[in-house]
């Protein structure tokens, strides 16, 4: 039985890499945010707006435990998932944790383009966005660093770059077992 958790900041590539990697490893794939959205019939943004962040974190913690009952699965978590409650310890207990590590500069570039769906980044641009990412990454890094595999996911500009990341992770994860 195999269970892999992909963790990392927003924009690190967890969903993109997760889908491809799961297929290559012959595992099912679940994106935790999408799972939450399916269960609540609302977007993560709506849940934040209507119920607030604390309630989102409560839901996230419960549904993380639910998806972790599945076997032979790769789970892409939300950027905040490992950093609340005992989620990181729980994931480490339940499977292999993989941190996709990306620099503040690169995250800022990626998130400037696709921050619209991320409620925690709402209204932030340019320097303000970069400062926010730097500060929150510093707080989150001690959680992310507990992952059993820490992988440099800085270069993911082209399809070939992404495939390269996926292939390297596949090799590392196959060696693990
Ligand atoms: C969040 C990241 C999002 C989502 C929510 C909160 C965060 O997931 O769970 O908007 O606090 O970092 P992605 O990392 O998939 O964007």
Descriptive notes:
With 177 residues, this protein is of the alpha/beta class. It has 8 helices and 5 strands. The chain has helices at residues 14-25, 32-40, 44-51, 53-67, 87-94, 104-113, 126-144, 159-176; strands at residues 3-7, 28-31, 73-76, 96-101, 149-152. The chain has a 5-stranded parallel β-sheet with strand order 2-3-1-4-5, sandwiched between helices. The longest helix is centred in the C-terminal third of the chain and has 19 residues, at 126-144. The structure holds shikimate-3-phosphate (S3P). Shikimate-3-phosphate (S3P) binds next to loops.
Entry keywords:
177 residues; alpha/beta; 5-stranded parallel beta sheet; 8 helices; binds shikimate-3-phosphate
Summary?
With 177 residues, the protein is an alpha/beta fold. The protein has helices at residues 14-25, 32-40, 44-51, 53-67, 87-94, 104-113, 126-144, 159-176, and strands at 3-7, 28-31, 73-76, 96-101, 149-152.
Question: How is the topology of this model organized?
Answer:
Layout: E1 3-7, H1 14-25, E2 28-31, H2 32-40, H3 44-51, H4 53-67, E3 73-76, H5 87-94, E4 96-101, H6 104-113, H7 126-144, E5 149-152, H8 159-176
Parallel strand pairs: 1-3, 1-4, 2-3, 4-5
Helix pairs in contact: 1-8, 2-4, 3-4, 6-7
The protein binds shikimate-3-phosphate.
Shikimate-3-phosphate binds at residues 10, 14, 33, 44, 78-80, 118-120.
């Amino acid at each position: 039985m195999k269970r892999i958790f992909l963790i990392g900041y927003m924009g690190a590539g967890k969903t993109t890499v997760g889908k491809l990697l799961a297929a290559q490893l012959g595992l099912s794939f679940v994106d935790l945010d999408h799972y939450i959205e399916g269960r609540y019939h609302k977007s993560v943004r709506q849940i934040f707006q209507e119920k607030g962040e604390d309630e989102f974190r409560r839901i996230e913690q419960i549904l993380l435990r639910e998806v972790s009952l599945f076997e032979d699965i790769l789970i892409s978590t939300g950027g905040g998932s490992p950093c609340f409650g005992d989620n990181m310890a729980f994931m480490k207990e339940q499977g292999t944790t993989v941190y996709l590590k990306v620099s503040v500069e690169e995250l800022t570039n990626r998130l400037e383009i696709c921050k619209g769906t991320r409620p925690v980044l709402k209204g932030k641009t340019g320097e303000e966005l970069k400062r926010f990412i730097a500060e929150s990454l510093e707080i989150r890094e001690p959680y992310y660093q507990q992952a059993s595999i820490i992988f440099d996911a800085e270069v993911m500009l082209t399809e070939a770059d992404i495939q390269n990341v996926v292939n390297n992770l596949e090799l590392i994860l196959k060696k693990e077992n």
